[in-house]
Amino acid sequence: MPTKMRSERDSMGELLVPENALYGAQTQRAINNFQISGQTMPVAFIRALLQVKSAAARANARLGHLDADIAQAIEQAAAEVAQLSDTELMQHFPIDVFQTGSATSTNMNANEVLATVASQFSKTSISPNDHVNFGQSSNDVIPSTIHISAALELAQHLLPALQHLAETIRDKADSVDRYIKTGRTHLMDAMPVRLSQVLIAWAVQIEQNIRTLQAQQAALHSLAQGGTAVGTGINTDPQFAQYFAEEISHSTGLDFTPAESFFAHIASQDIIVSLSGQLKTCAVTLMKIANDLRWMNSGPLAGLAEIELEALQPGSSIMPGKVNPVIPEATAMVAAQVIGNDAAITIGGQSGNFELNVMLPMIAYNILHSLKLLANMSRQLADKAIASFKVNEASLQQSVTRNPILVTALNPIIGYLKAAEIAKIAYKEGRAIIDVAAEHTDLSREELSLLLNPAKLTEGGL
Known about the structure:
- The protein has about 450 residues and is mainly alpha-helical.
- The protein is elongated and about 100 Å long.
- The strands form five sheets. A two-stranded antiparallel ribbon has the order 1-2.
- Helices cover about 60% and strands about 10% of the residues.
């Protein structure tokens, strides 16, 4: 059955819109123009945009620029729309990510939806431009919404997830401290390490990422709102930026401030480029941890088989009994995607042409995508791989006791060349290093046992 349509008008004329749509003509024009990817702006972005419109209405009411009835209706409309489920919400925000570079279409989409709903709560017919968008421009609304949505995702999801991952790793390190394994450099046998030392290194990497991300928050909390079209603040109250910052801080629980320079925040996306770069670093950390887990889990017969990851699902449609390291593999893919997102954001950041960056929708999509992926994957990695893996002690001991590199501990006593000679014999004959050293040095077996004790050789490191 054909969709029933109604006629809507904007500055370019009349246009048919689905009868039950909350949006109007400008949104419909964007739907018609940008049938590109089928990907819409992220839910987190749209929900932040609703908060921006609500905070702007409250700020303008405080300044006396909007009637209290109109401002209250806009605020009520924003709350009403925000209560919708993600699926229901996005039916009203159908515009493709790949649209006008300022995301004016998405800003007007929000203005039209809120005007339609707010008109139900007001004695006055609410205008998308003159009321919902009062004192604002897409050019300060969208950069502000990028910062606000990213700040919320960072504070509420990613940082807690990374903290959970770090704590899980440290807990696991405590439980496996007694296990000694062969260290490896260049993927070749090296001096022994405690399994706990391996894990603590991972935890420190994660904690470094947490601290660096936290250091980004102050800049991320600075907002372009109040700069309007080009940064001069045309058509808005000079006090609006401060009032808006107070209102959005109250509604989100984060401490937002007006930008040091509206011009910089509207013309560039340097702060988001910087945040994305740190998310890339986080992705690199997760990739390293994932790959270490995959190597240590490899086998179970022809690999290292140092640990056994939790069996989560069958690993092959043709090889019965095969189980694969699916969580580390998913982690590696997430890391690759975040690195790719960062490349797109970096290119997007270069598109600050004079007074406006014109890749804002793509930047918003990718930064929120990266934040979501890293947050979700960090929890999965913690709970379904690190917390639950088992240690194969027999495999660890077999490798450690046969490792000729243990002769390194004798260097200060017998010298590097003599130690190298002993190592080569041990390799060639497949013998334990203590047996060869007993034959080719004046050291007693008791002395060698102390000097070559793998556990003792792990001491001294942090």
